[in-house]
Amino acid sequence: MREPTYKYAIEIFWSEEDGCFVACVPDLENCAAWGMSYEEALAQTHVAIRADLRSREKFGEEIPEPTPRVLV
Fold it and tell me: What is the dihedral of CA 44, 23, 30, 10, to 10 degrees?
């Protein structure tokens, strides 16, 4: 798998309510995915990010810069 060119943070958590892992991209509003495993949720999130960015490009919408994050 090749390294993605985007650098957005992805938050992944287990949703008891949904019975699956949910992955959200805070910098891209409404960009999320899910999977039955952590790895599947992560892979589906990469698909969602690419689709979100293509859509923004097609419709001339601004592409947000990734928010810098630092471990303290």
Answer: -100
